[in-house]
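Work Package 3 committed the consortium to producing structural models of liganded targets before the mid-term review. Because experimental data for this complex are still outstanding, the team generated a predictive model from sequence and the ligand definition alone, so that downstream docking and mutagenesis planning could proceed in parallel. The input record is reproduced below exactly as it was submitted to the modelling pipeline, together with the SMILES string for 3-isopropylmalic acid.
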Amino acid sequence: TKNYQICLLPGDGIGPEIIAEGVKVLDAVGAKYDTAFAYTEALLGGCAIDATGTALPDETLRVAEASDAVLLAAVGGPKWDTTDPAKPRPEQGLLGIRKALGLYTNLRPVQIFAALADASTLKPEIVDGVDMMIVRELTGGLYFGRRERFYGEEGCGTHGAAGQRAYDTLEYREYEVERIARQAFEAARKRRNKVTSVDKANVLETSRMWREIVHRIGDEEYPDVELEDLLVDNTAMQLINRPADFDVVVTENMFGDILSDEAAQITGSLGMLASASLGDGTALYEPSHGSAPDIAGKGIANPLAQILSVEMMLRYSFDMGEAADDIRRAVTAVLDEGWRTGDIKGPDTPADKVVGTVAMGDLVVERL
Amino acid sequence: TKNYQICLLPGDGIGPEIIAEGVKVLDAVGAKYDTAFAYTEALLGGCAIDATGTALPDETLRVAEASDAVLLAAVGGPKWDTTDPAKPRPEQGLLGIRKALGLYTNLRPVQIFAALADASTLKPEIVDGVDMMIVRELTGGLYFGRRERFYGEEGCGTHGAAGQRAYDTLEYREYEVERIARQAFEAARKRRNKVTSVDKANVLETSRMWREIVHRIGDEEYPDVELEDLLVDNTAMQLINRPADFDVVVTENMFGDILSDEAAQITGSLGMLASASLGDGTALYEPSHGSAPDIAGKGIANPLAQILSVEMMLRYSFDMGEAADDIRRAVTAVLDEGWRTGDIKGPDTPADKVVGTVAMGDLVVERL
Ligand SMILES: CC(C)[C@H](C(=O)O)[C@@H](O)C(=O)O
Ligand SMILES: CC(C)[C@H](C(=O)O)[C@@H](O)C(=O)O
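The resulting structure, written out as tokens with the ligand in place, is given here.
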């Protein structure tokens, strides 16, 4: 029997409901593959702010670091929304744990389950065959650069007014670009061998450096992988125009935030997409969607993205590819049989095929 | 007779071909409305680099400043692509003239001509009724902040390697946010009275300041206009999910670059979209598309976005709303009659309805 220690971070909103289904699936897989998963729950985000005053308590970080993998559900909600720099915000927990665990690679696969192809707002012939992997740099750029606000004084400021100003810094170092480029090329080798590197080299100095480094790594270490550059604005267009053409898309943190959400929406079923955040130590797995406070506590949230984040955990942290394939097959079967949660039901879904969070988790477990 | 002085900037690629059609339309409108347009041509972008070594020659700026409006076609092309900070780049001409003329407001209307509704890769019921105005801040943010690259030395750098690093600065001042917010609220009052302000306030300090200022201006000066905030990543999704819900979208420079191109692509006919860049003096009008070097010189480029940028010029610089309406009606009629350039032809377009650049310009002029 293998033993793995999992840190659970239910977070806010629908988080506690969906993470329970992820655990259910992990337990079922563990029983089948002679692997024991032990869990320690910890606080992150809004619930951590309420309990401790900070979005990422030291204790949470200690538990995460001591674990073999972290399973996160979602953080945030209107309760904690604020623009006051002095107040804690749930996102600080997410950003803090990414930085503290050194999770510089965010992998966001974008695929369409055949049964849900019609959920897309794009025409079926356009989304047919969409299968890309967004590789987002996750611990650099605007997210972690120096930022400040200056509250101007009466009579100061360029326009003679009491002028505030603020800045954020987009900063990258060579080794940060090198290592994320390697992740993208490695991913491409296991896929269709093509990398699209996204930047804004016609404006940003960081993008010009990014482009040079990605090409050097490509030329020197991955001459077998096709590499193209695409400007971020053009990428935002091409994702809608010809999404099926993309294989691996690699980009810096902020562009990756925007483009990965755009790409996710192209599938029309955000409730089905998971992500992995990897570094050199413990990795973290989470759904691509948020904490959906509006439906929290109702038992109707879709647990499938959380369950698919467990699939990614098995693949990337525990090298359990077969078990991961089992989960994907089980989810596909449940969808093919017509089972739906409220968010992914169509106009033709019969009422008795619409199930809640727990029932959906049970359906997947039954098919494992 | 009224007299207006227009600065023409044909630029690169298809620029010279399409701007000629814009001029043709201006002349036709001028004749009808007793207005004389006089033109002075100047160099901007790649052609300016070739002729003078710089993308924005002083002479060009002088001509532009002395004119009542600037009509730009497009700049750039692979010939001038470089990541070498020491070499001039065509985009510097565009960015330079925006800054020098103080063109802080970029208006990008996104609408769908009924005859071209099927060109979208989105389902017809999703794009039906799309009619939004993207208001992009154009002279601040990452585009104009301090930027630098440091070429590391052997033995230096965090990882003991010869580490380069680079940074760009996202900076905003209070008055910059105030004035673009007012532009958005004013635009909304002439439309459906709703503003969506896009930021990344859960991460960026500039976004938190942006959000506070936009709300203050809204509360104090435009209490009649509905105001909502949307995070940039969520906006990238909602533009695909429910594009018809947006009225006015206001955002900072880089987010505006990405989102306005995404919104443009939703229509499926980028060759039909124009933009206006306004400041306190001479304004500039240009198509939303690029210089399309691959089809330059072939006489097949679509001149309609350029012609629609003339429409915007008449509306915003010369208060000639009736003449502007004429142009829009003429373009609509030409499309309704089935005339197409190569980029907007459909699978069912008969070959004899596909026309070149000059013929398309003539068709519009005939219907004026
Ligand atoms: C919540 C937010 C800070 C976060 C981000 O911007 O990275 C989220 O949007 C994501 O993509 O994981
Ligand atoms: C050419 C480039 C510098 C420019 C920009 O990013 O502003 C273009 O994409 C635009 O949107 O006008």
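Reviewers should note the following from the model. Residues 15-32 of chain B form the longest helix (18 residues). These observations will guide the Year 2 experiments.
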